[in-house]
Amino acid sequence: MRKTKVTVLLLLMALTVSLLAGCGGKEEEKTKDGYAKKLYLYNWTEYIPQSVMDGFEKEYGIKVVESTFTSNEEMLAKLTAGGTGQYDMTIASNYVIDAMKEQDLIEPIQMDQVKNVKYLDKSTLNQPFDKNNEYTIPYMTSFTVLCGNKKKLKELGVDIKSFNDLTNPKLKNNIVLVDDIREIAAMALKVKGYSSSTTKEDEIMSTLPWLKKLAKNVKVYDADAPKSVMISNDVAVGLMYSMDAAMAIEENKDLDVIYTKEPAQKCLDNFVIIKGAKHAKEARLFIDYVLRPENYKKVLDEYYGVCINNGTKKLLDDHYLKNPGANVDRKELKRAEYIDDVKDAASIYDDLYTKLKTE
Fold first, then answer.
1. Among the four 97, 187, 245, 292, which has the fewest Cβ within 10 Å?
2. 38-141+267-327, what's its fold?
């Protein structure tokens, strides 16, 4: 009797599995080379041109389905809330890689299968956050700069030599800031002589009075397109990523990059593969495609990032080279400080930002 029940139970289980498999839909379509026809990318806004994704689809028959985020924190929140099953790959900054590994959000990337890594500047490889590049392949250096409207600043009688000059009352309602607390707090911390990646609560919170003073001059916090108000002459100066500054300079010749006595901020953005990705093979193929020098040039032609591809450096033209937001000052880039992982202190930075915006 017991054996009969077990047999019946096994049959029912098999039937259930069969039905569930049927509910999953038909088997995924493949290209003639055996690749899946879709790759799911979770990416920063305006970071890989559609032309590059279209070229990849044309060559391999794989469509890149892109969803976007505006900060590392937004990306992490989505993935930790159960979003890993929606994507195959993402682009993450150096200071969140440890957290992604600790939370089991990413898997080994198998860099040996991406031959075009050979073009990457060696200074970007084997970083402390991922020795031997087990989980990451560098994509681009993100460099944060001040972009200033020379004409408006002259009219206002403001000369910016330090981040502290941004609190000048003459700049009231004349500043745009990238909506990222780590970038904003870094300015205040440097003015006070602290590390921009400090984890000490008293140092972090001590910046609040300075930030509130700065806030009186801020017209808008914008994570998506801080360049827009610079292009339209609505503000005199902005803290933004160098690629946004470059695109703004391309549109408005009154704009230029401003370097202060305090060093700027930088981070290294990296390709990573999401844990359990269904299309990891296709993700590696896409990374390899993007790193081809001629394709990486297409990225820089549209988004003006800091070039870390030695093969592409030989292809760059005046369109890129003569733009100070794109071809950034290498001495300043070297002087810049990396934004580092602050681990549990991230919540203190979040509290700082809440106090800044609500009190």
1. 292
2. D-Maltodextrin-Binding Protein; domain 2 (3.40.190)
CATH label, 142-266+336-358, candidates 3.40.50.720, 3.40.350.10, 3.40.190.10, 2.60.40.10: 3.40.190.10
Q: What is the pLDDT of residue 20?
A: 42
Give CA angle at 183 (99, 233), nearest 5°.
140
Q: Annotation-wise, does 95 bind a ligand? A: yes
Mean pLDDT of 214-220: 97
pTM over 0.70: yes
Question: Are 279 and 88 spatial neighbours (Cβ–Cβ below 8 Å)?
Answer: yes
Is position 181 annotated in a ligand binding site? Answer: yes
Is 182 known as a binding-site position?
Answer: yes
Nearest by Cα to 152 from 179, 124, 172: 172
Q: Is 180 annotated as a binding residue?
A: yes
**Do the annotations mark residue 359 as ligand-binding?**
no
User: Which residue has tokens 């030989």?
Assistant: 314
Alpha helix (H) residue ranges in 89-180: 94-102, 150-156
